[in-house]
Amino acid sequence: MLVVVKVGSSTLVDANGAVDRIYVRELCDQVAGLVSQGHRVVVVSSGAVAAGRERLGFATRPTDIPSLQACAAAGQAVLTETYAEMLAGHGIPCGQVLLTRRDVIDREGYLNARNTFERLLSLGAVPVVNENDTVSVAEFAFGDNDMLGAIVSTLVGANLYVICSDVEGLYTANPAVDPTARLVERVERIDAEVAGMAGGAGSSVGTGGMASKLRAARAMLAAGIPTVVCQGRRPSVLADVVAGKHVGTRFEAPEGSSRESALKLWIGLAEVPHGSLVLDEGACQAVLARGASVLPVGVVRHEGTFESGDVVNVTSEDGELLGRGVVRYSSEEMGRVHGLRLDVIARFMPEKDGQPAIHRDELLVF
Fold first, then answer.
1. pLDDT tens-digit series, residues 244-285
2. In the chain, at which residue ranges do the beta strands (DSSP E only) sit?
3. φ, ψ (nearest 5 deg) of residue 34
4. All domains of the chain in start order, with CATH
5. How many CB atoms lie within 10 A of CB 223?
6. How does residue 308 score in pLDDT terms, banded at 50, 70 and 90?
7. For a tag on the chain, would you pick the N or C end, based on fewer CB atoms within 10 A?
């Protein structure tokens, strides 16, 4: 089994904001245990900024970009040193992989990254992955490491994605304020009700929260990769999750559900969306229930500026993200054709004769 394990900053650092070496040792002991059983493991680790803040002497987390990137640069060294030391105690080499969306936004870069992972794993190494925050800019940032872990999971063809968090999993309400809140053990589809269970921002040392974990889980449902959100400091949590025990919240599509193609996953996860197409209710149903293409007649409006061939979001009128795909019209053209049938469009744009706004073969539905 190939397992991708994502560890959040709030799980990785101690109360003083420094890397908790005792926890990292326990985590690496668990990873080594999985490797000894024949599993392959990739670790997606947060915590670089928090670790760098301590090494560079910042009393609190800085807010300006240059200082954050400096902390990330120093912190990456701390993390790599720590993981390498702990894994070496088990005779396991560690390979650092730093990524930005720029590295996987084009197909060649995506395949090169996949080849690197495959070679490291074939050599018995544990790749330790983080976003390259020292050079990332907003346009090419993953946003949070939950989604980075999801992209890595699809890139390596993982069998399981484990998000080690500071909470037990998804609750029906915030357990800190609602004593009736209960843990949701299994989710097969993320709808408005499930999305409404997610809270807001993450901890003071992290960028994610339950909402970001649901975004990643939604992507993994489309990819056909089971995802477990669990308490990362629970003893033997990785062994229990891999063994299939009831731990945290497991997101898994119903048995027999189709797994999307690698091309669709690349479009939907690795690419940066340049805008949005907003669909009416009928078009939403056609896309979700019948796997239809997105036709201009079902587009209510578009948002953003894009060219033909760019990736855009597909949303409902109430803002729900339905999917992501390659649009065949520019934003200027969409302004002219939205709401029109294909035969009408062909009269004044013959070069677009029969062209949907997004073909279903180039649309990843979440």
1. 999 999 999 888 777 777 677 777 776 778 999 999 999 999
2. 2-7, 40-45, 94-99, 126-131, 160-165, 186-187, 227-231, 249-251, 275-279, 299-304, 311-316, 321-326, 363-365
3. -65, -40
4. 2-251 (3.40.1160.10), 273-365 (2.30.130.10)
5. 25
6. very high
7. N
